[in-house]
Amino acid sequence: MKKYKIVLVCGFSIFFGLFCNRKIPVIDSSFATEVNKKAWDNYYNSIPELKSIPGGREYEIRVKRIVDPRLEDLSDEKYANLLKQIESDVNYYLGYRIKIKDMGKEEILPFFKKYRKVFNKPQFQYMIGKHTLLLKNDEDKIRLKNSIENAIKDKPLEIVKKYVNDKSVNIKDSSQLTLYFYNQFLEKYNAIGRVAVNHGKGLLRDNEYELTQQYSYWSAILNETEDADLFITNSIIAGADDQMPLYVINRGGITSGITENNIKNSFQGAIVLTLMPFISTNEYFNKARGNVYENLLIPIISMMAVHEFGHLLDRFDEYYDLPASPQNAPVDLRYQDWYQNIINGHGFFSQLRTLKKY
Ligand SMILES: [Zn+2]
User: Fold this and answer.
1) Domain count, the chain
2) Does any domain span residue 7?
3) What DSSP assignment string belongs to 174-224?
4) pLDDT tens digits, residue range 280-301?
């Protein structure tokens, strides 16, 4: 009888573990082992270099909507308008004809849980464990400070200056500058995490949802997804990692969109575009964004998609110093200024640097 009970309990535990408690694994720096590093190096080296994508034909882009039910979202009508606008803007600014295929929508938690197997692959355990900073211990904070120092070290002062609002900071003093960006990052990062969601019943960054807002987890998904070429989510990517570029540090960790390698589709890449920074009516976002004209909202989000499609279809690199080009990332959340600048400058493109891999 006793034996029977053990079997029953074990059977139940296994069943519960496998089917009922499918949590997204929380991967920390201890996963960045030598073995996992080798797996990552092998994986990354095995990705073929990006081929150029010829124009003169139409490309089908599969788009899936990923929904965080706690957050504001575009109406179905506006979402449909956005897809149309992206088709037309990609053609106008990049010269590629794309036809969007709507792949429907999925809720963000079940969507992430579906990718547990991918997160658990040694190469992605390494990538996530090596770079993600959950900032729950001092070690992460030291790594954050070091990565900020690195991000500003090789940038010309003229570019760094664009991100410094406090004029009392001596931009030539690198330790003062690092400290300024570090404090500013933590202040914004914490404020974003505390944004009220679900009609005031929850916080944006809570235990269950935190990983769905992490750059590295999205990056792993994009590498292996077969669901879509472009994900549009009403959520946000607002985490910390040790590879953030200056414009992400300046926004307290917000990345508006990611284009990443993909080993399954013919574009060799996939995109996620996040809507929360554009559409949230929360005070924090309203203030950081400034007033955005209602009729410009869809064109602005679409221009962000053009930026990502510039990476995906033209293989363009990231830029900091191009006037009036979508390839220049917006400063802070001032999307409207960025958009107006592009429109006034007619979306100027010169010969841009291209990438061999994302
Ligand atoms: Zn970019």
Assistant:
1) 1
2) no
3) HHHHHHHHHHHHHHHHHHHHT-EETTTTEESS-TTTGGGG-HHHHHHHHHH
4) 999 999 999 998 899 999 999 9
